[in-house]
Amino acid sequence: MNKNFLSIHKYLTELPIISSHEHHLETKQQMKLTLDSIFKNSYVGWCSLPASTTKDARSQWLTSIRSNTYFVWLEKSICQIYGYDEINADNWDSISEDINKRHQDGLHHWHILECYANYKKFIQDSYWNPGDCLSNPEFVASTYRMDTWMAGFHKNCLDHDRMNPRMLVDYDMQDLDAYEMALKADIESKMPSICALKCAVAYERDISFKKVSRDKAEKIYGSSPELISDDDRILFGDYIFGYFVDIAREYNIPIQIHTGLARLAGSNPMLLEPVIAANPDVKFVLFHGGFPWFYEVAALAHNYQNVYIDMNWLPLVSTSAAQNALHTFFEVLPDCRRICWGGDCWTSEESFGAAMAFRMVLADVLADKMSSGLYRTSYIDFLAERIMFQNCKELYSMA
Ligand SMILES: [Zn+2]
């Protein structure tokens, strides 16, 4: 193994990290965790789970999932925290008991993040309670999820997480004016822990947001969902997205946007170019490195100074794709201060695995750049600190 890699990796393990994005479960849910429920609340669970709890079913599942990097990093993390060499059908129940026992004090999930993953802080996206910081404002900042407001022109409209704004706030929303006031009041009530706005509508529609007149949005507002065409539903979302862009400008906070790997037909980051170009004074953070479109994301960040790249989730999706992407981002961006990382996980076990994956990706890329003579040795520490915490701290104005 490259000697530079080993020394850089050691250095990164000791460096603190700020994660720009997590969906960290609340303490009462963390206390119930077992091996099975960690899998269920992880990306491994998005792929498949064992067909039953028999040894045979677990063994078959483990054999098929072992090549997938969601599993690889989660297993590494669980083994390191709980002292096992691997997860297999024979030790499954005993690992599960250990996990549940250790979570009983309600603090174990914070301990993993602080002491194993070396997190200094993270930004929470509680789509079930936008803007929440898990009663831990010292350690947790929050991003305000906008999806439910983009979908909620009527009380029966739900977003892809089965949410409606009227479940979140108790304001009168009889017309569009009142709806906008309720939205703004909710955000203001959760300041100053909110440091960003987050849009994940790529899971339910495309991300080409058009400019829509207030007149048009007023006509749609309050209409029964059965009487509204799909086009009008999208238009209302576009109008509210524009309202959020104004809020981002007013409070000087970035907009985080899910790009890539959702509904593939509509999540190409290039679809965002018009809104990025039309709002040069608003910062747009393109999530997941745009995977699989990381060249497109790099091109957008090359041409527009208000584009930031966030690699959260990507090292788990594909560790080698993350390495290729980071090589490209370093080379193409005119400013290395516009690259961030986050875990994008529900449990601390998976966040620790994500942080391990990212430290490996970053060490590998920096070691390559050094060995090939592209970057001077003296520049490596600066880049490492930028990507691990400094960029995130500055972008989201963290103390
Ligand atoms: Zn996420």
Description:
It is a single chain. By secondary structure, this protein is α/β, with parallel strands linked by helices. The chain folds into 2 domains: 3-28 and 109-395, Alpha-Beta Barrel (TIM Barrel); 32-105, no CATH class. Helix content is 51%, strand content 9%. The protein has helices at 3-14, 27-30, 35-40, 43-47, 55-65, 69-82, 92-102, 108-116, 147-151, 165-168, 176-190, 214-220, 230-251, 273-278, 294-303, 314-317, 319-332, 348-371, 377-395, and strands at residues 17-22, 119-124, 140-145, 194-199, 255-257, 284-286, 307-310, 339-340. It has an 8-stranded parallel sheet with strand order 1-2-3-4-5-6-7-8. α14 (273-278) links the parallel β5 and β6 (284-286). α1 (3-14) packs across α18 (348-371) and α17 crosses α18. It is globular. Bound molecules: zinc ion.
**Spatial strand sequence of the major β-sheet:** 1-2-3-4-5-6-7-8
CATH topology of the largest domain: TIM Barrel
Quaternary: single chain
Which structural class matches the secondary elements?
alpha/beta
CATH architecture of the largest domain: Alpha-Beta Barrel
| Number of DSSP E strands | 8
The fraction of residues in strands falls at 5-15%
CATH domain class of the largest domain: Alpha Beta
Identify the bound ligands.
zinc ion
Radius of gyration: 21 Å
Distance N to C terminus: 38 Å
Helical content band:
40-55%
In the residues, how many domains can be counted? 2
Number of helices: 19
The shape, in one word, is globular
Mean pLDDT: 95
Biggest sheet details: 8 strands, parallel
From N to C, what is the helix and strand string? HEHHHHHHHEEHHHEHHEHEHEHHEHH
Q: Any idea what the CATH superfamily of the largest domain is called?
A: Metal-dependent hydrolases
